[in-house]
């Protein structure tokens, strides 16, 4: 709505979309951040701002494991954020295990969607990217000719490097 905003940004990094694959459930029309307001996502893509999108297909590759949570909880001093983060992660993993009791293999980790998107702001090399023309289907009809690329989309991630950076950062808080 404010065209000067797009020009003022060096780059916009968005955790959203699903670019190479399908949702795990046919009941879900797409990745949550996009399907809850596809018109807004489309407006962002058409804004002219330089953009990088980190999609669900890539964020699902970086996971917080129960071992990671235990390592965060083992920090020596009681008041550390690391300890709190480890407790919260362990609780969330346990909740997901109870929520999906029949899922095999048993849930022992959870994806770190937003932390990856935040991390690539300062460490873009954590992911591999491809220039793509991206559009959001809102039911208004298809675009007749493929447009020029309008953003870079993450197509891969160095999950080990991200996990190491994330955990060492949290341990330092």
TrEMBL record:
It comes from the Eukaryota. Pfam families: IU_nuc_hydro. InterPro entries: Inosine/uridine_hydrolase_dom (IPR001910), IUNH (IPR023186), Ribo_hydro-like (IPR036452). The keyword Hydrolase applies. Keywords: Glycosidase, Hydrolase. SUPFAM superfamilies: Nucleoside hydrolase. Gene3D superfamilies: Ribonucleoside hydrolase-like. Residues 1-164 form the Inosine/uridine-preferring nucleoside hydrolase domain. Belongs to the IUNH family. This is Inosine/uridine-preferring nucleoside hydrolase domain-containing protein. It comes from Sporothrix curviconia.
């Amino acid at each position: 709505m404010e065209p000067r905003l797009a020009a003022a940004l060096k780059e916009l990094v968005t955790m959203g979309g699903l670019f190479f694959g399908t949702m795990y459930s046919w009941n879900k029309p797409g990745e949550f951040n996009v399907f809850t307001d596809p018109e807004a996502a489309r407006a962002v893509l058409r804004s002219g701002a330089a953009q990088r999108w980190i999609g669900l297909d890539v964020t699902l590759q970086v996971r917080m494991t129960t071992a990671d949570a235990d390592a965060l909880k083992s920090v020596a001093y009681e008041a550390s954020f690391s300890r709190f983060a480890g407790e919260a992660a362990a609780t969330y993993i346990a909740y997901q295990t109870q929520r999906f009791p029949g899922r095999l293999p048993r849930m022992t980790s959870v994806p770190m969607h937003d932390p990856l998107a935040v991390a690539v702001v300062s460490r873009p090399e954590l992911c591999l990217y491809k220039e793509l023309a991206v559009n959001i289907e809102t039911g208004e009809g298809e675009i007749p000719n493929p447009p020029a690329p309008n953003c870079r989309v993450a197509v891969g991630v160095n999950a080990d490097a991200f996990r190491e950076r994330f955990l060492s950062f949290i341990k330092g808080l």
